[in-house]
Every structure is written in structure tokens, then in C-alpha cells.
Design a protein that fits this description.
Number of helices: 4
Oligomer: single chain
Strand content: 35-45%
CATH superfamily: Fumarylacetoacetase-like, C-terminal domain
CATH architecture: Alpha-Beta Complex
Number of domains: 1
CATH class: Alpha Beta
Shape: globular
Distance between the termini: 32 Å
Helix content: 10-25%
Largest sheet: 10 strands, mixed
């Protein structure tokens, strides 16, 4: 029997903070979640230029092993052609729901052959800190996601956009097939990403941020990427 992945999280709310043990029984990654059809098509065309086959429907939902979920500050990969992309992450357990920031690290070489395989190849990183979803629901579109890529001594702002440009949690879950998936037992959903500023960038590490300008707070997480030698 496959055991759930257990993560120790800290829920930071307007009333204070508390430690939570999250047991992930399901991991779903969404894709092609942009609301602007022109921007979405531009992203599809960009990936097609890299040899990645476009989706048969939008949005898409992919089911993965929860064993690739991590809050670590470093992840191993087997290729130097992997890159992260900032996403919001929804967490459900019992009657609770939280949001945090994460990254859908992807093997871009494998992606040209199989999108699901390229994502299963890499860890799915999320911050240990999260907020109650109810606290940001009313001003959701004003939240801002950012990602910086670090390569050597160079730090580049890779992505930055308000969440109003992609599907909200309500829209994402409404379209998501739920057969065999339980929120009660523990479900993690990666939202899909926002546009990059200048195309795909590979890097040594990634800095993630989910900013709430209304309540004046941010969730941040940084992680490094260590390329393992394929032969020893």
C-alpha cells in the first residue's frame, strides 16, 4: 500500500500561527490555466517551438505520486535541462484549505517526449508556510506571484504577475475531475503557472514569492538544484 507523503507546515493567519501535519494522499498539477486566450496560445506556440506537443484540452490536470512533494531547500535532478516555474499551491485536509507558493520543476528534454513524465521526473517544491484560503479569497486577483532565477552571480526576475491572469481556486476546482480524489484525506493542487518575462531560463536556484499587498505579507521559498552525475 502506498503511504501518503507527510509534510510539516506552518499556517500563518491573521490570528497567529500554528504547526500542522499535512498528509498528502493526492497530488494534481494543472496546466494551461491562463485566462487571456492570446497569451495562452502564445505559450502553447512557444513550447511547440521547443518540440513540446500542445494540449488536447485546456486546462489540463495531471495526477502524480505524492512522493515528489517537498519543502526542502535543495532538490536533485539528473539533467541540467530542468527549470522551475512559480505556481500557487492549494492544500486541502479534513475541512481545512490553505494556499502557499511552489514550483513545478520540469525536465525540459523529457517534456518534448511526455509532459507527465517530465514533471514526475522532478520534485514539486512548496513553501512550508501557508495561509488559510479564506483570508485571501475576497482579494484573490490582487495577489502577486514572482520567481527569480539565479545562475552563478546573476539573479534574474523570471516571472511576475497578479493572480487575476490565471484561473482562481474556484475555477480550477470546478473544472477538475474529482473521481477517486478526496479533499478530506489530503490533496495538493499545483495551479499552473504565469507567463515568463523573456522565455525559458535554466538556473542553479530559484526564489519564489506569493505577495498579499492587501494584508501586507508574503510567503517566500528558495531552493537550489543539484545535478546528479548519471554515471559513477
Amino acid at each position: 500500500m502506498i503511504q501518503p507523503t507527510v509534510l510539516k507546515l506552518r499556517v500563518t493567519s491573521r490570528k497567529g500561527g500554528q504547526e500542522v501535519v499535512f498528509s498528502a494522499h493526492h497530488l494534481v498539477c494543472a496546466g494551461w490555466v491562463g485566462k487571456d486566450q492570446k497569451v495562452l496560445q502564445a505559450h502553447i506556440d512557444e513550447l511547440a517551438h521547443l518540440g513540446v506537443k500542445g494540449p488536447s484540452r485546456v486546462p489540463t490536470y495531471m495526477n502524480f505520486s505524492t512522493g515528489i512533494l517537498t519543502t526542502d531547500d535543495e532538490i536533485p535532478v539528473i539533467s541540467d535541462q530542468t527549470s522551475g516555474e512559480v505556481e500557487y499551491v492549494l492544500l486541502f485536509q479534513g475541512g481545512d484549505s490553505w494556499v502557499t507558493v511552489g514550483s513545478d520543476q520540469t525536465d525540459r528534454d523529457i517534456e518534448t517526449k511526455s509532459i507527465p513524465a517530465s514533471k514526475q521526473m522532478c520534485a514539486k517544491v512548496l513553501s512550508r508556510e501557508c495561509w488559510p484560503l479564506s483570508e485571501v479569497k475576497e482579494h484573490w486577483d490582487r495577489l502577486i506571484m514572482r520567481c527569480w532565477v539565479n545562475k552563478g552571480k546573476e539573479r534574474t526576475l523570471y516571472q511576475e504577475n497578479p493572480l487575476g491572469g490565471i484561473l482562481s481556486p474556484e475555477e480550477l476546482l470546478k473544472k477538475m475531475p474529482m473521481e477517486g480524489i478526496s479533499r478530506e484525506k489530503g490533496l495538493a493542487v499545483f495551479s499552473g503557472t504565469i507567463p515568463t518575462k523573456a522565455g525559458l531560463i535554466y538556473g542553479d536556484s530559484f526564489d519564489l514569492e506569493l505577495e498579499d499587498p492587501v494584508l501586507k505579507r508574503s510567503i517566500k521559498h528558495s531552493y537550489g538544484v543539484r545535478v546528479l552525475p548519471q554515471y559513477i
